[in-house]
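Most newcomers find our protein records easier to grasp once they have seen one. A record pairs a protein's sequence with a compact description of its fold. An example says more than a description, so a record of this kind follows:
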Amino acid sequence: MQIASAASAFPKHYYPQKFLLEQLQQYWGDQLKNPLMLARLHRNVAVEGRHLALPYEEYYDLKTWGCANDAWIQVAQELGEQALCRALHHAGVDKSKLGALFFTSVTGISSPSIDALLINRMGLPANIKRLPIFGLGCVAGAAGIARAADYVRAYPSQAAALVSVELCSLTIQKQDLTVANLISSGLFADGSAAVVVTGSELNATGPEIVATRSVFYPDTEEMMGWKVSERGFNIVLSPEVPVLIRENLGHDVDGFLADQGHKRSDIGSWVLHTGGPKVLEATAAALDLHNGQLDASWDCLKKVGNLSSASVLVVLEDVMQNRRPEPGTLGLLAAMGPGFCSELVLLKW
């Protein structure tokens, strides 16, 4: 099983963080009792700019959740197609050879789901197996790779694709002035990514998926997620998330690696979800990472913000294209998200 390719696609509307802050201050207007606090929160997320699904002025027209979700359905198809086409091209895999299509998002809903719409839009095989995933949030990029690996392990002559589209800007809540929502308005962004995973009989190039592990933390559902109301998705984001990471991620990774006959010092490449500054700092502390070992994640956060499930896939794309380790290097791809849970993927480059 190998990751044959990873590719991203972004909306054409890109804005510097300073401009977005100014627009949000105008958007909330007199509701915002402390504009300086919003500026401080945006500055602290370490994001320099973000892509938006729509031109900024069109967000004023999103009066209902239905309007926002209609925009999500349209843009998700466009970006999903772009990312998947690029991933298939980089992998050298014809779309007719796809045996399974996994789709993940946590920023909109559609039935038929976006994967079904992509089959029609792209002319994918009519007998392709599809699995839409909702609710995993930031962890879904790593979880989707792991589930695609499960599939090609069972069907080694086939390829499976994972497509992630997250349009976080379309979940904006004008009535929610909680600190969690103000932070989210500066941290989360829009984008898409796709990964092609191939079975052992296809002889593709790319990092081998050696093993995967899922870890669920009981009774932590209040840490992260959505509170769904008639207005749409309201962010749930606990300040205790970094604490949970510090307390659990290190020994979870060590246990996973030990079961594969390895230790943490054997890992030469880290592909980790961007989270935010506090999440990345907690991750570095939990895993004792330093000297630039998380540079790919920090760079992704700075350039495009937190893309939820797509983030770890964009980091993977960057590592595959610009920071590729020496052949034989062991790597760990990991993300954490609602549940609360973590997904770990051991790679051999």
